[in-house]
């Protein structure tokens, strides 16, 4: 065997492969800045608008293509092409795609991802578009619009909101002789006590993101606390309010209102199986087909603390700053966004509330989807996810603390203190990573 | 990460392949053409290997020496800082990383013995002349073809604390019916190891079975003539005969267990707390979810080094024993 030949071939191969890898990753980002405007009309040349989203489950795979088909039919010079993929894939692939100029012209992101993308110059400043479309913060539920604001620039237009609510199995509730759904701490605890008397553990509390973390966040806000300080430089979820909130949850187990060691989704399964009366869960469960055989109701989460507050997530339209972004495409995309928001009534079918007030206040929405009513009333005082780049990693520490407290590994104060220490380290690292 | 396994396994193979031509006779042009043909046939694999194993491997080393971010245009070289952080107590990543390394270590320690011994016993049973041996072989192998997502969903239902079938059955026979199989220690370990054994034992069983079939039947006959019983035959014929297979199985099983991810990701979410968050789970989270790609790359290389050392030690130990056994 001609060894030098082989060695040369191998090293050439390696060099080539590394070259490909390096050049692929060295592709630099798009031109910065560049605010665009739009007025809901597009008169330019024919364009194809690429749209990335993560609606792969439930009713969405049927509704989204229908909406897009309708839009394409109405707009001769715009063709929207949707690319559905898992949310995790959208988040993972979009940054590199945008840097390489191969990202979408319009996309939908969750509220807690906006800042991470904006901080990296991956999104266009959409202030001009929003002015052109005539949107203001008043067109959406309180504080949602501001979640698209990062370092004094507006990057996003709200699309949907998904608050937490309380699901009630009325058959189980009736076992304890209760007909009124509780609304405050006194009536809620009375109901749990009555249920306990009837041999039912009324609310099964879990230490996972779905939905223990959402319950904790609702409670800390109700007790007057917050997860982070105002400029998100320090974790404050280990404050007195935070400890109160977590203790309230662990007390459910201690007082026998909840079994210990509930697995993820164990509580919603139990509600459906008729083993528990209450489950704090998201509006998306209104589409759960397993509810068909139940006598159930949804209600706003009870007010346990001094203030009214409830956790909600939100999704937003964004206009990626692709390398060499074609402004015609962005303008066309803004027409699409406006049209989608105007025609989002059917979106309620997916178990999300349309963010546009005009659509949500249309009486025909509640006629079609009466179960959404309690969630709509919650929007007056709903709180949304923290806006800060890389915050998801710090938020994961909250779930960890809940899990440790609910499995009895640590008491609430210690669990939250440890988590806050870690979160502070992460926040500090994020500031270095994303700049400020 | 499969590339770890490939990299570990690769060197001896290359060396063995490289040595042979030297010992051969002087080659004629035809044989040279044959060699060229052989390399041409190997080229497609080589291209894939270079593109998906070697290049990312080298790129990963470079990444671990920078503060790499998928968002930034320019990456700064930071030397060994990411590695130093991992070995500095109190840094953001070090305690979580070593905790997850120890979780993986625990899983390897408690799962590998079961994953080796149980398949060995099953293989011996299946090797007997019994009726429907093929059917049983299929039954034992069947779970292996399922994806980890399927396993996660099935066992999530079976192991649920309150509404799981397992606890229900335990309750029927008067045992505690509220065991937190996927929520609290030590039960999570029982679940993870149990599920993994059920899921993957088929592969090791089949390999052992092949090894058993390869043992010359004359040896058993000779042993019988010498008056050896079943236990003695197992000790003196079966075990030595299976040694090469045993090296392969322990090495691959250790590596597979060290790469455990899906079971704890789906069944326990790494909980309670971080008690079952394996190192692969932590690296994937840091690198892919939190965009901390540089520290994640450094962690991968620390894990790679650890696994490489374990594999080499394992290989040496077992080879020595085989050589002694041969003598």
Structural write-up:
The complex is a heterodimer of chains A (436) and B (327). Chain A has 16 helices and eleven strands. Chain A is an alpha/beta fold. Chain A has two domains: 47-162 and 313-383, D-Maltodextrin-Binding Protein, domain 2 (3-Layer(aba) Sandwich), CATH 3.40.190.10; 163-310 and 387-434, Periplasmic binding protein-like II (D-Maltodextrin-Binding Protein, domain 2, 3-Layer(aba) Sandwich). In chain A, strands 1, 2, 3, 6, 7, 8, 9, 10 and 11 form a nine-stranded mixed beta sheet that branches. Chain A has a two-stranded antiparallel ribbon with strand order 4-5. In chain A, a hairpin with a 2-residue loop joins strand 4 and strand 5. Residues 1-37 of chain A have low confidence and may be disordered. Chain B has two domains: 27-54; 88-326, MetI-like fold (Orthogonal Bundle). Chain B is built from 14 helices and no strands. Chain B has helices spanning 2-23, 29-64, 81-86, 94-127, 133-141, 148-159, 165-172, 187-213, 217-225, 230-241, 243-258, 262-267, 279-289, 293-326. In chain B, helix 4 (94-127) packs across helix 13. Residues 1-24 of chain B have low confidence and may be disordered. Chains A and B meet through helix 1, helix 3, helix 10, helix 15 and helix 16 of A and helix 2 of B.
